[in-house]
Every structure is written in C-alpha cells, then in structure tokens.
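Hey, resending since the last one bounced:
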Amino acid sequence: MKVVKDIVNIISSGTPVYYITGNHDDMLRRFTDFEMGSFKLVNKLVLEVDGKKQWIFHGDVFDLSMKYSRRLAKLGGKSYDLLILLNRGINRILNAFGKEKISLSKTIKDSVKKAVKFVDDFEQTAADHAIAQRYDYVICGHIHRPQMREMSNEHGRVMYLNSGDWIENLTALEYNKGAWGLYEYNKDTLVNTPETEEEHEVIVDEKELLTNLAAEFNFMLAGNKLLAGPKTFQ
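The structure tokens again:
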C-alpha cells in the first residue's frame, strides 16, 4: 500500500497518471477512459516524448489464448497464481538454509519449447504492428520477460521494451534524462536489504487492493473539495 499511497500523492500534485489495464484486471476494462483528476484508466496509450512516439499497452491483445479461449486463459492465470504461492513457500525454506532463491515459472517457461516460441512470436508481432504504425517505441508487459532491444522487419525497425514483472523478475521500465532504462530490484544495492525483502513478502489480493485504492481516492477528493471550497476563515 505504500506504493499506492505514493501514486495517489503524485495524482494529488496534478501529475498525469495512467493505469493501463491487462488480463489480470480485465474487469476494469468496462471503465476504460474513466478519469478522476489527473488519473486516467486506459487500455493503451500513445505518447510523444522528446520527439519519439511511444506505444504503450499491456500485451494480452496479442495472446491468442486470451482472445479466443477466455476459460483457458483464466485457468492458466489461476495456475500461475498457485505456482507463485508455491514458489514463495519454497524460497522461504531455501532462504532459511542460506540458499539462492529460484523461479519455478521462469524455469518452466524457459525450458518448454512451445513457451519459448510463444514469447518470440509475441515480441515479433508487437514489433511488426509498431513498425506498421510508425512508432519509435513499443512498450508492453504480459509475458514476464524483461527486455530492451531493437527489432526489425522488411519495413523498418523499432525499439521493443518489456517491463518484465514485479513478481518474479522484480523489474520495471524507467524513463530518465531522455532515455529508457530497465530497473532491476535484485541489482539495486541501495534497497536490497533483509528489511525491504520482508516488506516485499506482504500479499494484498486484488479486491483488497482496489478497495484500499478507492479509499485513498475518496480521501484525496475530500481534501481537494476542502481546498476548493469557500474560504470562510482568514
């Protein structure tokens, strides 16, 4: 919730914040284009930054299992969630014995040829669409594989960026001083301490997160109304 509160504070300051929906929060897509102050809920976003066109979206639109078999996709999502819980328990045991943490889902995906081909096809499809639309950058997530590389086809080239995820890889994309960079939590010596690792283990389910977020927004709106109201006191 510390992250959510920080984001709400950013919104309160008037800085534009875009929430880009994905398959794990599909229910929010019925509220696409919802706005509250400087906050906006969107499916995709096109920004021009420093003269470069950036196409930003989650990525499940290019996942055929999401598009044509929603039941299968939901089953896969639940299985993934269970695997993450199992992985967390195993890593706690490994940590207690001073062993290095492992990622079960990453190991499975990297070792299954079909999964590797799916990821490669996904990246090329995203790049092809971006090139066709003459974007300079295509930025997405979904496949949980952090990446920053130039991709091309017979029609041109584009910079492909994937944020990875904050569950296994602990990665994010950052734009700083005119350039994109890939942030890797596990390589950040300033925050990678036992105390912050314990905080990382806190689990908040989707409904609780949305409830807390709504409460924060209501608090923010109440504060804004108070500031915007008639000044009866001098």
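The mean pLDDT is 79.

Sorry for the duplicate.
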